[in-house]
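Each record in this resource describes a single protein on a pair of labelled lines. The shape at a given residue is found from the number at the same position. The record below illustrates this layout:

***
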Amino acid sequence: MKILITLHNNDIAPRFDLTTEVLIARIVRGKISGEPRTILLPGPSSDELCSLAIKEEVSLVICGGIEDAHFQYLNWKKIEVIDRIIGSAKEALTLAIAKTLQPGAIIWTRPDRSTTP
């Protein structure tokens, strides 16, 4: 299984159509296999992003807002879409692997208490 996450810095990109960076992670037996890849796109394009998901044989797309036409197209291509996600891409990936990520989730990153004075 491969997961594609739209990125803006370390968070989920708020809009699918304006995404210029994605993370692709391969999941094997409930764990990340290898190093996830970050891909910089030449510019924002929903059509190119959909093409990339198909070319990379992605099973799941995690994103913020997405137009219904692209949502339906990805579903038609048998790619699951979990949309309207706000927050940390890393935490979203963890929740997706655990199969607990739901559309519309707001994900807060827990502060690392070991670095707190």
Q: What stands out?
A: Helices lie at 46-55, 68-76, 89-97.
